[in-house]
């Protein structure tokens, strides 16, 4: 059949090449996609073209992903072109994405194709609810989108249009309009774009400024734009001495460690000393030295001393557990107030206050008491419950009122008291058991020892979250002991930990444990 | 519409003969009604119809000049019943709503209206929310038109064509004594285009004339024996009259060559995409010069049998392009051709998909298959058609499928409904999961992450009614959610009244945010704004108590998560009989910001003491477990990766779009999550007393901070 057809003497029927210019704007609802669409329509109409836009705001107007579509064409002898209402895969000239993952979504729709599409995408991210609410790290992989843009777009214009707009006191639509003008993808001059913005009447100066900045940024030569690439991680140089003489011996300890461990150990030491004092820093280094001794004995050098490095990291986190003293200390620091003032853009004739939302429980109070007393109260159920009813409630703390500040300041200054507290005793016991486990398991299986150190990541947060973290840690550790003799024990430990991190809502840990129990 | 002005759009309604209108089609439709001399307009808001309602709400002056009675109806049923003004009197009237949901609600009144018939032109504008981006079930209004025998207009997506068909539609309605429906799809409603206007027409016969000269005619009322006669009248008189009118006034259009082996029959609304599809296949230019004969049904019901028969006669095959299912038109077409023994093959849903959007791409593939089977010569040398299949199969693009996360809609920044669902989630953690029946409205976003609350939705205002089966005592109680919009739409009777009467033991949560928010922030009975044209400030609690509810609690600030949680808990555990009703009230933040933002800016500019607030997170205190986000989902609350080698997980962060509603602080306090959140308050134009207190306190604070800083061991940054 086909062969018969092909033998027919056929000429092309009709003129199919004359097409409208097609523009798709992929955006999030409420992000100004409608404004940009309106501008593009106006731009074409001002030039005497026929332009048609369509959209489906619907429910997506509440922060969901949505798409606006514009077609434009000249009238011919008074006849208006018939314009389509939806983008056709493979037939879109310009795609504008106001967010980077939305650019990725447009590629998946097939509307970005190498033969015709100019892709104008802002590289900033507005995280989706899934990415934000994922326990642990859930942020999508932007480089994958960049890779796909590389093979799909005929022309690509990518930069952080949101930041550029913010720098110029305007909104992203103005920056994107500037990028569109700069791309030269539409047959209209810069003045025509200016005229559209000026016709708008609102925030014109800032919009024009933003438009121009984006226009210039788009037209600049690529090499002039080389942004500092995030790929090359400069290894921080660890100082060899300090202005504070008391630190000298500690620094010497750090420099006795292998190269690849030092940066992490320094960061850990910084955190521990900042949390408590120099003596606590020394304790940290001593514990780290223990870990390193095991590491050396196990020929850790061949593993880049992963055991020591992870030890340096997670030990520092374990030693700087979050307690009332820590929170009070952080909240009362001068640097903290300065940071907030900066973020709020505080001017000299304005006054800044902050209100903290705190909910102390008796648990935190007993944690602060000397270990013996704390234990006694905890065990006397009636008294504990009575006290808890008085303590445990939400408190709005006016940080920079004298009364509250003094209270927080005194609490934050109780660092000397901390090492005798019940909480500290509990934390030390937990920490030591964990380190002992890590060392013991590392002797049988180096990688497994490293994984055990990393399990410390499970413990975080305050109150219930903290308790849940502890229980997850215990369950993961129990399973690890269960599989410790398997050659792939480290893999299972890693899977257990990753699953436990993501377990906040899904209950995936139970399933994995069942799987493990089915064979081990 | 309390907080948004449509003054600019209202100006469009004043355009006169020869002026060119440029704007959205839904506004062109509004203008078309005024050009047709309507006496009254009603309707219920909802995408894509909201704009029509909003603009008319703001257009009192224009409407008064023309003597048009406009009202925002209580629901679609009310709107449909409003058309009864056209039964006895030569009054033209129109009502509008989102379809098919609104038509479902209206169909009782519509069926009565259609049975008795009309004297004045009666038109229902339905915004057909079908296909991508739709927020409702996927059905067709077409079925309603057929069952009640109302004529269904489906104009080409062109402002001029639509406006023209509105005018002709009223004439058709009057000529056939039948109400008509004008169906416009969402994309068409939101389509920007232009048309040349005519002057608005002031109705010759007014509402006042009707009231002053009341008329009745028993044969127009649906009661036996009139009801039987009305059915016969539909068949023998009204339908033939309609067919004659449609044919005589050429409401349907023919394009392209008269003769041909094949032809395409299409709904008017499909025209633009069919032309584009033909263009891809080299069979039309961009201006609609098609080489394939087209029969465009701007009237989708009834089918004009003589026209379609003439079109198909002598052709080998015709293709029916009909969006949605079932394929009513294809069936009708087959009936027409078989009855006349015309042997053109009818193709349709066998080469086009049964359901879903008929995009240019989808139609192109259907036409391609159709032509290959029946007239492959037309496909010529087959120039390449747009195709993204190759690039979509590139591994780097394939990989994106697992990378690009879904972006479901959610509650706005600062939404007062967020703390309600956060509280409900906390209650579930304490008392276990409960059956939650959701409703239509912004609060329906509770079914999505991060709240994941709500098992069913059964229609607007029917959240409470849909727990009817679960009202028995002694079980875990059901929770029904309903918004203020749904409450006044029908929920007061269908939900609350029903629960009181049947002694339902469950919990009924009414979310009161002072507006019909999901549809754009229109005023309703319980809105707190003063509205000079409407009666507002009628509290929900009075209505609820009025129908006999006893256990009623009000939470007047939904952001009080602790109180919200305690109230829910009490409702779920109290021993009191009957429905437990909670009214949770706080103003819709979107509308509040529209109202308050300019006020705040003015106060600051005028030198008045003003406090501006925003929330923040102390990143050193945040441990990155994201529990707060799982109880919020606020767009301004996100996460960021810190430049700290000791930290694995990103920490919470709040951007400057925060409106300081307080949800994150309240939630972390109520759930005892963590002390990371703070509210920052900046006092603009502080008073002398403010300054004095500040100077005193900060003097001491700075001194203490300095003291501690010097004692702290400072390690240099690496």
Automatic annotation (TrEMBL), chain A:
<feature type="domain" description="DUF6537">
    <location>
        <begin position="261"/>
        <end position="478"/>
    </location>
</feature>
<dbReference type="Pfam" id="PF20169">
    <property type="entry name" value="DUF6537"/>
</dbReference>
<keyword id="KW-0560">Oxidoreductase</keyword>
<dbReference type="InterPro" id="IPR046667">
    <property type="entry name" value="DUF6537"/>
</dbReference>
<protein>
    <submittedName>
        <fullName>Indolepyruvate oxidoreductase subunit beta family protein</fullName>
    </submittedName>
</protein>
<dbReference type="InterPro" id="IPR002869">
    <property type="entry name" value="Pyrv_flavodox_OxRed_cen"/>
</dbReference>
<dbReference type="InterPro" id="IPR019752">
    <property type="entry name" value="Pyrv/ketoisovalerate_OxRed_cat"/>
</dbReference>
<feature type="domain" description="Pyruvate/ketoisovalerate oxidoreductase catalytic">
    <location>
        <begin position="29"/>
        <end position="215"/>
    </location>
</feature>
<dbReference type="Pfam" id="PF01558">
    <property type="entry name" value="POR"/>
</dbReference>
<dbReference type="InterPro" id="IPR052198">
    <property type="entry name" value="IorB_Oxidoreductase"/>
</dbReference>
């Amino acid at each position: 059949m086909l062969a018969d057809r092909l033998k027919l003497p056929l000429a092309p029927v009709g003129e199919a090449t004359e097409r409208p210019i097609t523009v798709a704007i992929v955006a999030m609802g409420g992000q100004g996609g409608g404004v940009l669409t309106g501008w593009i329509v106006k731009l074409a109409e001002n030039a005497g073209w026929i332009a048609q836009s369509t959209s489906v705001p619907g429910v997506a107007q509440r922060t969901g992903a949505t798409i606006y579509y514009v077609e434009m064409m000249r009238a011919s002898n008074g006849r208006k072109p018939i314009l389509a209402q939806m983008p056709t895969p493979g037939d879109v000239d310009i795609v504008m994405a106001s967010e980077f993952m939305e650019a990725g979504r447009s590629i998946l729709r097939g509307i970005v194709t190498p033969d015709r599409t100019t892709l104008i995408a802002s590289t900033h991210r507005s995280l989706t609810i899934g990415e934000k609410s994922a326990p642990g790290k859930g942020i999508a992989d932007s480089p994958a989108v960049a890779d796909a843009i590389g093979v799909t777009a005929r022309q690509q214009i990518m930069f952080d249009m949101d930041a550029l707009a913010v720098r110029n006191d305007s909104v992203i639509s103005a920056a994107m309009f500037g990028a569109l003008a700069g791309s030269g993808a539409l047959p209209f001059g810069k003045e025509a774009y200016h005229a559209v913005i000026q016709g708008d009447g609102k925030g014109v100066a800032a919009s024009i400024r933003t438009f121009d900045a984006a226009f210039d940024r788009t037209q600049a030569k690529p090499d002039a734009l080389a942004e500092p690439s995030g790929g090359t991680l400069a290894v921080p140089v660890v100082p060899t001495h300090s202005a504070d003489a008391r630190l000298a011996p500690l620094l010497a300890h750090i420099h006795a460690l292998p190269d690849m461990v030092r940066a992490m150990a320094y960061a850990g030491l910084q955190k521990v000393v900042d949390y408590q004092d120099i003596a606590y820093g020394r304790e940290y280094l001593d514990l780290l030295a223990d870990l390193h001794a095991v590491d050396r004995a196990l020929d850790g050098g061949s593993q880049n001393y992963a055991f020591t490095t992870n030890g340096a990291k997670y030990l520092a986190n374990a030693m700087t557990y979050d307690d009332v003293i820590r929170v009070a200390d952080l909240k009362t620091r001068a640097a903290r107030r300065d940071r907030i003032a900066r973020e709020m853009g505080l001017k000299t004739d304005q006054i800044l206050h902050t209100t903290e939302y705190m909910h102390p429980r008796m648990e935190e109070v007993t944690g602060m008491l000397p270990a013996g007393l704390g234990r006694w109260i905890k065990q006397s159920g009636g008294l504990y419950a009575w006290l808890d009813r008085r303590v445990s409630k939400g408190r709005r703390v006016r940080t920079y009122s004298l009364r509250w500040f003094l209270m927080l300041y005194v609490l934050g200054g109780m660092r000397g008291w901390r090492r005798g507290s019940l909480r500290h005793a509990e934390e030390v016991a937990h920490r030591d058991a964990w380190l002992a486990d890590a060392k013991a398991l590392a002797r049988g299986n180096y990688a497994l020892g490293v994984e055990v150190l990393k399990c410390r990541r499970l413990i975080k947060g305050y109150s219930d979250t903290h308790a849940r973290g502890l229980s997850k840690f215990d369950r993961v550790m129990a399973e690890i002991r269960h599989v410790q003799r398997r050659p792939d024990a480290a893999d299972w430990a890693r899977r257990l930990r990753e699953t436990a991190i993501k377990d906040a809502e899904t209950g995936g840990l139970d399933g994995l444990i069942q799987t493990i129990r089915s064979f081990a | 519409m309390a907080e948004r002005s449509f003054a600019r759009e209202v100006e469009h309604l004043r355009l006169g003969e020869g002026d060119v209108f440029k704007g959205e089609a839904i506004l062109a439709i509004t203008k078309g009604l005024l050009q047709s001399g309507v006496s009254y307009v009603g309707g219920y808001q909802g995408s894509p119809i909201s704009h029509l309602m909003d603009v008319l709400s703001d257009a009192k002056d224009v409407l008064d000049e023309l003597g048009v009675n406009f009202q925002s109806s209580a629901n679609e049923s009310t709107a449909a019943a409003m058309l009864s003004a056209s039964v006895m009197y030569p009054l033209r009237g129109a009502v509008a709503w989102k379809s098919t949901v609104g038509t479902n609600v209206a169909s009782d009144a519509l069926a009565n209206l259609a049975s008795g018939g009309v004297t004045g032109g009666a038109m229902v504008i339905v915004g057909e929310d079908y296909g991508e981006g739709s927020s409702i079930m996927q059905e067709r209004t077409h079925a309603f038109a057929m069952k009640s025998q109302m004529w269904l207009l489906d104009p080409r997506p062109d402002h001029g064509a639509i406006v023209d068909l509105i005018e002709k539609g009223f004439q058709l309605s009057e000529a056939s004594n039948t109400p008509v429906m004008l169906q416009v799809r969402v994309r068409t409603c939101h389509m920007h285009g232009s048309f040349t206007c005519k002057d608005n027409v002031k109705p010759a016969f007014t509402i006042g004339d009707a009231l002053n000269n009341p008329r009745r005619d028993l044969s127009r009322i649906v009661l036996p024996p009139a009801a039987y006669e009305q059915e016969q009248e539909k068949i023998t008189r009204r339908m033939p009259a309609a067919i004659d009118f449609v044919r005589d006034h050429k409401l349907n259009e023919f394009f392209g060559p008269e003769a041909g082996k094949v032809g395409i029959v299409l709904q008017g609304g499909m025209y633009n995409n069919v032309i584009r599809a033909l263009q891809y296949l080299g069979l039309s230019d961009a201006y609609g010069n098609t080489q394939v004969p087209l029969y465009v049904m701007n009237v989708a019901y009834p089918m004009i049998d003589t026209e379609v028969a003439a079109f198909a006669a002598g052709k080998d095959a015709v293709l029916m392009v009909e969006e949605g299912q079932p394929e009513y038109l294809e069936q009708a077409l087959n009936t027409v051709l078989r009855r006349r023994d015309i042997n053109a093959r009818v193709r349709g849903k066998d080469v086009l998909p049964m359901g879903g959007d008929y995009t240019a791409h989808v139609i192109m593939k259907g036409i391609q298959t159709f032509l290959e089977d029946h007239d492959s010569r037309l496909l010529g040398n087959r120039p390449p058609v747009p195709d993204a299949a190759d690039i979509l199969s590139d591994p780097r693009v394939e990989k994106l499928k697992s990378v690009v996360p879904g972006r479901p809609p959610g509650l706005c920044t600062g939404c007062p409904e967020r703390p309600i669902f956060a509280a409900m989630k906390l209650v579930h953690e304490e008392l276990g999961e409960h059956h939650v029946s959701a409703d239509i409205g912004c609060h329906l976003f509770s079914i999505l992450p991060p709240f994941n609350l709500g098992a069913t939705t059964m229609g607007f205002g029917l959240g409470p009614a849909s727990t009817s089966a679960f009202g028995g005592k002694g079980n875990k109680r059901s929770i029904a959610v309903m918004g203020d919009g749904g409450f006044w739409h029908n929920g007061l009777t269908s939900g609350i009244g029903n629960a009181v009467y049947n002694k339902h033991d469950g919990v009924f949560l009414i979310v009161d945010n002072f507006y019909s928010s999901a549809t754009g922030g229109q005023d309703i009975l319980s809105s707190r704004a003063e509205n000079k044209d409407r009666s507002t400030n009628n509290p929900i609690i009075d209505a609820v108590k009025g129908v006999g509810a006893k256990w009623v609690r009000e939470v007047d600030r939904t952001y009080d998560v602790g109180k919200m949680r305690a109230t829910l808990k009490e409702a779920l555990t109290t021993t009191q009989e009957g429905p437990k009703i909670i009214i949770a009230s706080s103003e819709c933040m979107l509308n509040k910001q529209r109202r308050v933002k300019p006020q705040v800016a003015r106060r600051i500019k005028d030198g008045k003491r003003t406090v501006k607030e925003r929330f923040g997170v102390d990143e050193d205190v945040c441990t990155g477990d994201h529990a707060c986000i799982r109880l919020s989902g606020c767009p301004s609350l996100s996460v960021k990766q810190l430049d700290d080698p000791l930290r694995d997980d990103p920490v919470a962060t709040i951007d400057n779009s925060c409106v300081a509603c307080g949800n994150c602080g309240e939630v972390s306090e109520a759930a005892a999550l963590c002390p990371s959140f703070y509210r920052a308050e900046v006092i603009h134009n502080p008073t002398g007393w403010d300054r004095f207190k500040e100077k005193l306190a900060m003097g001491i604070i700075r001194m203490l901070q300095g003291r501690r800083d010097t004692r702290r061991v400072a390690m240099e940054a690496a």
